[in-house]
C-alpha cells in the first residue's frame, strides 16, 4: 500500500457534460510527468454497477480494453498505455460494482461484526483502499473519476477523494477539473458560466479544484482566464486552455505550453528538470506533414459509435506515422454490405480492416468484404472475429463448402470451421470467462507474419471463446490459407495468411491493444506499408515514402 509522502496523487474530475476527454487529459498529463523522469500510473474509477464493461454493448460504452493480466477494462486505459510506459492491469480500473461486491463479501464474512455497513465510511474506505493499492511502486498516481460532477452514481467516489487530501496531506494531493468553456457563435462570445456552475457543484461537495482544464474550440485569452479564476477561486496560472488538437498526440505539447506540468509540480512540491518532449514533437511533425494520404475501410457492426473501435483507430494512426502517411478512415457498417454494392462501397479503400464482434448480425457483410479484398488484391487485416470470417469465406469459396460456418452463428453447421474452445464448453457465466489477456504465439519461418514481427515468439492480448477448427487446418492450407502463428502446443491457431496475395492476414488476438505512437504494432505498420505500396503503384508520381522502423 502507498504510504503518506511516498506517492503523489492527482485526481481528475469532469463537469458540465460527458465526453470532454478526461481520459485523454489524464494521459497527456501523465506523459508530461513521465518526460520529467517520474514514474506514473493511473486508476480509472467508473461509477456504473457492472463489475466490468465486459458484458456491456460497445454501442453504449465503447470498446473494452483488455490488459495483459486479462482484465476487461474501460477504454481510457488504452489512452493511458498509449501515452506512458507503464502497462495497466486489473488494479488500474475499478467500478461501483466491484466496490460494493467487496464490501458485501466482507460483511458476509463477518469483517464488520457489530457495525451498520454504510456508504460512509465502509464504501468510501474501500475506494480509498483501491487508490492506495494502485499507487504501489509509482511516484505519481493519476486517478480519473468517471462520469460528470453532479451524477448520483459518482458521489461516493468524490467523497473518498475529498477525504484523501486529509489522509495524505495537501502537499501530496492535487484536484484537476476538466470543464467546458463553449463559444456561442450567435453571440460571438466565449461563455464561462457552465464552468462556474460546475466548480460550484464540486465545491459544494467539499472539493476545491486546484487546476481547471478548460475544453474549448480555441485557446482562451488572458481576459477569459482571469474571469474564470476570479469566479472559481483558482489562480489565473492554473486556468489551462485545452483546445481541440489534431493529432491527439499534440495535447501533451499544448498542455506543456500552457504550463500545466509546471503548475502540478509546484503544487506537489516536486523538483524535476524540464520534460524531454522530443519524441512527441517528432510524432506530431510526422503526422502533420504526410507524404501521401490513404483510405482505410474499417468494416464492423458497431461503426455508429466510433469509440467501439478506439484502439483500432489509434493503431492505424500509429501505422500511418511509421510510414509517413495520413489515413482517412471510412467506417463501413457490415450490414450495409449484405445488401450488395460491395465493389462500389470499397472501391476507394487502399486497405481494409475487418473488426471483432459477437453474434450473427452483419457477418455476411464482413464475408463479402473479405471476398472483395481477396479477389481484388486489397491489403486486409482480420481481427479476432475478422479472422473467423476469413476462415469461413475461404472454406466456402476456396474449399467449396457452401454451408461452412461458425458454431457461434450456426450450431448445426455441417462444416464448423470455427468452433467453441474445449475450455469454454462448460462455461455458463458470461462475465470475465472468455480466453482473456496475453497468450504466447510461435511464428513460422518464411511467413508474412515473420517478416512483420521479425522474431519467433510473441505475446498478444486475446478476448474470445471460439477458435479455428483444427479438423480443417490441413485442407485450408492446401488452398493457400496457412496457419503462420500457433500456440506453443500447436493446438490453437493464432495467425493465418493467404499465399499469393499482396497482404492478407487474420489474427485471433487484438493487436491494436499493444500499439503505441512511439512503437507502432508490426501488423498495423505492415498493413499501412502495403496500402502505401498499392497507392503508389496506382499513382507512380507520388514521392517515395520511407518506412520508419520506429519513432522512438
SSE topology:
Elements: E1 8-14, H1 22-35, E2 40-46, H2 58-61, E3 65-66, E4 72-73, H3 76-83, E5 93-95, H4 96-109, H5 119-134, E6 140-145, H6 155-168, E7 173-180, E8 183-184, E9 189-190, H7 193-204, E10 211-216, H8 222-232, E11 239-243, H9 251-258, H10 260-267, H11 278-288, E12 292-300, H12 310-322, E13 325-333, H13 342-345, E14 351-354, H14 363-376, E15 380-383, H15 385-397, E16 404-406, E17 415-420, E18 435-443, H16 448-453, E19 457-464, E20 466-468, H17 473-478, E21 481-486, E22 493-498, E23 504-507, H18 522-538
Parallel strand pairs: 1-6, 1-7, 2-5, 2-6, 7-10, 10-11, 12-13, 12-14, 14-15, 15-23, 16-17
Antiparallel strand pairs: 3-4, 8-9, 17-20, 18-19, 18-21, 21-22, 22-23
Structure summarized in a few sentences:
This protein is an alpha/beta fold and 552 residues long. Helix content is 35%, strand content 22%.
Q: Please give the radius of gyration in angstroms.
A: 25 Å
Q: What structural class do helix, strand and pairing data support? A: alpha/beta
pLDDT average, as an integer? 93
Can you tell me the overall shape?
globular
Structural description of this entry:
Helices cover about 35% and strands about 20% of the residues. It has 18 helices and 23 strands. The strands form five sheets. Strands 13-12-14-15-23-22-21-18-19 form a nine-stranded mixed β-sheet, with helices on both faces. A seven-stranded parallel β-sheet has the order 5-2-6-1-7-10-11, sandwiched between helices. The two termini are about 35 Å apart.
Amino acid at each position: 500500500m502507498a504510504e503518506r509522502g511516498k506517492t503523489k496523487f492527482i485526481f481528475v474530475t469532469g463537469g458540465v457534460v460527458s465526453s470532454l476527454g478526461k481520459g485523454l487529459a489524464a494521459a497527456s498529463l501523465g506523459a508530461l510527468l513521465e518526460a520529467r523522469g517520474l514514474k506514473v500510473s493511473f486508476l480509472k474509477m467508473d461509477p456504473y454497477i457492472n463489475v466490468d464493461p465486459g458484458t456491456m454493448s460497445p454501442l453504449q460504452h465503447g470498446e473494452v480494453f483488455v490488459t495483459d493480466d486479462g482484465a476487461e477494462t474501460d477504454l481510457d486505459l488504452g489512452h493511458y498505455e498509449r501515452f506512458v510506459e507503464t502497462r495497466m492491469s486489473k488494479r488500474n480500473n475499478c467500478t461501483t460494482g466491484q466496490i460494493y461486491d467487496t464490501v458485501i463479501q466482507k460483511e458476509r464474512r463477518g469483517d464488520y461484526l457489530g457495525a451498520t455497513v454504510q456508504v460512509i465510511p465502509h464504501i468510501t474506505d474501500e475506494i480509498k483502499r483501491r487508490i492506495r493499492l494502485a499507487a504501489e511502486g509509482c511516484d505519481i498516481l493519476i486517478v480519473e473519476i468517471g462520469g460528470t460532477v453532479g451524477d448520483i452514481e459518482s458521489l461516493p467516489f468524490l467523497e473518498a477523494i475529498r477525504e484523501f487530501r486529509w489522509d495524505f496531506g495537501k502537499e501530496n494531493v492535487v484536484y484537476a477539473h476538466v470543464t467546458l468553456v463553449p463559444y456561442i457563435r450567435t453571440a460571438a462570445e466565449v461563455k464561462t458560466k457552465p464552468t462556474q456552475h460546475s466548480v460550484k457543484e464540486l465545491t459544494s461537495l467539499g472539493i476545491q479544484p486546484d487546476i481547471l482544464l478548460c475544453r474549448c474550440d480555441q485557446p482562451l485569452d488572458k481576459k477569459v482566464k482571469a474571469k474564470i479564476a476570479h469566479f472559481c477561486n483558482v489562480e489565473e496560472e492554473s486556468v489551462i486552455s485545452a483546445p481541440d488538437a489534431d493529432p491527439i498526440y499534440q495535447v501533451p505539447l499544448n498542455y506543456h505550453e500552457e504550463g500545466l506540468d509546471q503548475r502540478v509540480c509546484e503544487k506537489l512540491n516536486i523538483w524535476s528538470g524540464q520534460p524531454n518532449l522530443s519524441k512527441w514533437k517528432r510524432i506530431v511533425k510526422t503526422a502533420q506533414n504526410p507524404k501521401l494520404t490513404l483510405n482505410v475501410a474499417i468494416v464492423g457492426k458497431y461503426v455508429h459509435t466510433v469509440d467501439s473501435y478506439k484502439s483500432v483507430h489509434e493503431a492505424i494512426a500509429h501505422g500511418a506515422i511509421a510510414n509517413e502517411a495520413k489515413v482517412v478512415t471510412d467506417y463501413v457498417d457490415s450490414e450495409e454490405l449484405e445488401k450488395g454494392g460491395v465493389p462500389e462501397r470499397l472501391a476507394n479503400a487502399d486497405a481494409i480492416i475487418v473488426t471483432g464482434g459477437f453474434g450473427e448480425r452483419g457477418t455476411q457483410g464482413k464475408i463479402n468484404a473479405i471476398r472483395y479484398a481477396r479477389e481484388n488484391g486489397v491489403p486486409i487485416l482480420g481481427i479476432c472475429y475478422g479472422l473467423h470470417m476469413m476462415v469461413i469465406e475461404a472454406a466456402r469459396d476456396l474449399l467449396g463448402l457452401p454451408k461452412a460456418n461458425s458454431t457461434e452463428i450456426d450450431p448445426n453447421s455441417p462444416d464448423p470451421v470455427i468452433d467453441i474452445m474445449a475450455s469454454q464448453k462448460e462455461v455458463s457465466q458470461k462475465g470475465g470467462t472468455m480466453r482473456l489477456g496475453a497468450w504466447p504465439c510461435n511464428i513460422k519461418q518464411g511467413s508474412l507474419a515473420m517478416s512483420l514481427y521479425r522474431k519467433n515468439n510473441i505475446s498478444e492480448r486475446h478476448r474470445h471463446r471460439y477458435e479455428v477448427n483444427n479438423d480443417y487446418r490441413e485442407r485450408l492450407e492446401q488452398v493457400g490459407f496457412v496457419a503462420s502463428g500457433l500456440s506453443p502446443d500447436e493446438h490453437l491457431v493464432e495467425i493465418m495468411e493467404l499465399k499469393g496475395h499482396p497482404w492478407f492476414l487474420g489474427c485471433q488476438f487484438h493487436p491494436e491493444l499493444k500499439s503505441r505512437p512511439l512503437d507502432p504494432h508490426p501488423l498495423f505498420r505492415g498493413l499501412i506499408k502495403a496500402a502505401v505500396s498499392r497507392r503508389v503503384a496506382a499513382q507512380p508520381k507520388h514521392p517515395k515514402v520511407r518506412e520508419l522502423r520506429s519513432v522512438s
